[in-house]
Amino acid sequence: MNKRLDINKKLTLVLLIGLLLNGCSKPMEHAENDAASPQAQQRTSNEINDTTPSPDPSVDTQPATTDKPQQILDASINPAEQYRRMVRQAGIDFTTQDLIKTTLAIDKLSLDAGGLVEQKNISYAVSEYKQQYIGDGKIKIFEKVEPFADIIVRIPSEKTAAYVNQLLPLMFFLNQQQYSAKRYELTLLEQKIQQTQRVEQNTPNPQRNEIDRLTQLEVNDRVRYSTIQLNIHQPATVRERIDIDIAAVTAQHGNSFWQRAWQGLYTGWYFILNLVIFLITIWPIYLIVVLLLLAYRLIKPYYNKFSTIRQHSNNQHNKPEDPKDNTKDQSL
Predict the structure, then answer these.
(1) Domain residue ranges of the chain, discontinuous segments joined by +
(2) Is the pLDDT of residue 49 over 50?
(3) Distances in Å between the alpha carbon of 72 and those of 9, 87, 101, 174?
(4) I want to staple 249 with a disulfide (CB 3.0 to 4.6 A). Which of 137, 144, 188, 304 is the partner?
C-alpha cells in the first residue's frame, strides 16, 4: 500500500514538472516570434518598396511657362524642289505677350526679307464685362479683352523657312503650324478648274482670255512670293473705362416734379381727346345697334301675339272632356 502511494506521488510530481516545463516553453516561443516580427515587417516593407516603380527623373511634371520649338521649318534646300517651281504656303498660330510690339516686329521682318504685309487685322474681343455706378451720371466699366491679330505676309519663296524661324523670338506659345508646297502646274490646274466653274459659258472669248492671263499672273506671283498666314493671340487683359449712364443723367437733369405733373395733365388731356375722337370714329357701330333695337321693338308685338295664339291652341287641345257631355251621349 505504501509503495503504491509512493508511486502515485512520483507520477504526480513528474506530471507537474512536465506541465511547468511546457508552460515555460510557450512564452519563450511567443517571445521569439515577437522578436522576429519587426524584422519580418521590415523585410516585407523593403520588398514592397523595391517593387514600387520609382518616378522617372527625365519626366518633367512642372507646368510649362512657355512652349515653342527651337526651329519650325528646315531651312535646307530639298533637292526634289530645287529645279521645280513650287507654290509655298504656311500658317502659324501662336500666342505672344505684347500684340502691338509683335505686329510691328513682323512688319520690320517682312521688310528686311524683301516681302510685304498684304493684310493686317487687329481686334480686341470683349468676352466679359462688369459695370459699377460711381455717381454724377457716370459708370465705371471693367472689360475682359482678348487681343487678336490676323496678318497675311508675302515673302520671297526661297526665304520662307528662314522668315518663319525668325518669328520664334516673338512667340510665347506655339499653338499650331502648317506648311504646304505644291507644284506650279498643279496649282495652275486648280486655278483653271475654279475659273471654269465661276465663269459663265456665254462669256466672250476676249474676256475669257483676259481672265486666263490674270490667273496665270496670279499663280506666277504665288510662285515668287510665298503666302504666310499668321494668327496671333495675346493673353486676356482687363480694360477699364468711364462711360455715361444715360438713365442716371436723365433722372438727375430732367424736368422737376411740377413740370412733370403739368406734362402729365397735358398728356392726360390729349388722351381724353384722342379717346373721344376714337369713339366718334366708330359711329357705324352705334348705327347698327340702333337699327337692331328698332327691329326688335317692331318684331316683338307680332312675336308675342303669335306666341299667345299658339299657347291658346295648345291649351284647347290638351283640355279634358266635360262629364255632362258623356251623360248626354249615354242617354241617347
Answers:
(1) 79-243, 255-300
(2) no
(3) 104, 18, 21, 10
(4) 137
